[in-house]
Amino acid sequence: MISTESISLSFGSRTLFEDVSIRFTPGNCYGLIGANGSGKSTFLKILAGDIESSHGKVTTGPGERIASLKQDHFEFDESLVLHTVMMGHPQLYETMVKKDAIYAKPDFNDEDGLEAAHLEADFAELDGYNAEPEAAKLLSDLGIDERLHASYMKELSGGEKVRVLLAQTLFGNPDILLLDEPTNNLDVETVIWLENFLVDFENTVIVVSHDRHFLDKVCTHMADIDFDKITVFAGNYSFWKEASQLILQQQTDQNKKTESKMKELQAFVDRFSANASKAKQASSRKNLLDKLTLEDIKPSSRRYPHILFKQRKPAGGKLLNLSSMAKSTADELLFKELTFEIETGDKVAFVGKNRLAVTSFFQMVTGEVQPDSGKYEWGDTADIAYFPKEISAFFSNEVDLIDWLRQYSEIQDLTYIRGFLGKMLFSGEESQKMATVLSGGEKMRCMLSKMMLAEANVLVLDEPTNHLDLESISALNTGLTDFEGTVLFTSHDHQFIQTIANRIIEITPAGFIDRNLTYDEYLEDAGVNKLRKKMYDSGVHQKVGSV
Fold first, then answer.
1. d(CA 155, CA 158)
2. Chain CA centroid to CA 418, Å
3. What spatial distance separates the first Cα and last Cα of the chain, rounded to whole Å?
4. Taking the CA of residue 108 as centre, how many other CA atoms within 13 Å lie in the half-sphere pointing to its CB?
5. Are 488 and 460 in contact (CB under 8 A)?
6. Which distant-in-sequence residues (6+ apart) come within 8 Å of 137 by Cβ?
7. Quick one: pLDDT at residue 257?
8. In the predicted model, what is the mean pLDDT of residues 306-325?
């Protein structure tokens, strides 16, 4: 259990939290949500004791241990991987270090023996003799090869460090888990493992995530940051979102009678509860949404962008043809023998364990880089708009947003330009912001304005949900689902892929897998899983020149 009493925090004239009193109880997983900049990560740091609030206090149960996901990937560079995981339980690790140091003394004496005996007793009480096997199992479950367990953290890649830090947080059955974006840089298999771990976790979990599918899978409650307060609601993210929008819609409908509104709300709760009970995870106590209520839910103050992609002219026939394309870096084979066709209306999600391979593919078909071998050819009617993964170069000039967007428009009319910015929530003074001072999320929204302005019939998007808040992700999801043209995209967002794609292409070092399936169907297909394992096992050690 962890609770706050009258927590307040301000930075200058800006108030993040005011008089927040809230209680998080064992057996529940709370999704902490709010607009970008609302203070989600800051609140987790207050709970973890990493920063102090201006007023109020945080209380935990007697003897309870908090574990918080570390964000500094270089903090443990001089430590062994296995030891880094065990550091997640500081008391246990410190006891082990002291014990080992005593045994290593060259002049070990009777007094040392007595101290070692006390430490041995403490170590046993902390279940220390199972610590290394538990740490090793967590690492293996999270995809860290056993040969790396005795390596130093500085020898690992960035993605591997993320997994080790996640294992550190989960180690030793903490009483309170604080997880800030735990699915970042994880492949889909590891995300599914983490979902199952949290569903079965019996203590308290508070998580910040922009992955809606993840929030729906693991959360029993939403803790919504809005109006400088934090309010807890029963149910997962989808329930909270749909309920708050329904109530807002009802408030604007002055003609509907109160009794009719009540029936509509109850029908919504019944439908949502029935759907939840049929879900695969419904057998878990963490996902039995049998006490849903709308009594405390209020309309959110957050705004949703309006994302609508139009085609100036629809494409026809076969759109893109690839033949035997291959690409490598200086020391790594990214892919080989890419041979397939894209047809008009396809919405293809490109996935794979190596995100650089997918990014390189997008760069090739948009003409930014050349393949090492093979070729590709676009159809004559293809009109392509590209959203690259790295967008900082687009915002290097000292211009306001109106002039920034105007440079990409054939129509220079001010009202026309303002209209596209307004759809992405840049209205009034916001449109006068300089392009060089935008946040990551604001830059992404500007790029989406640029994409809408293009009115292309083919959209190529490399991780377009990065840095976006949940509201913008939902709006982009809807915009691409409704788009009548062709979409080639990749994303870490499970629900984004599931609801947009009608075709999955997985790029591996040993070739590719191409299936006309939804994402869930693709992940659950036994034949696909067998093929995926074979291709990654055969391609994982291939370097340049081994093709």
1. 10
2. 31
3. 55
4. 13
5. yes
6. none
7. 64
8. 94
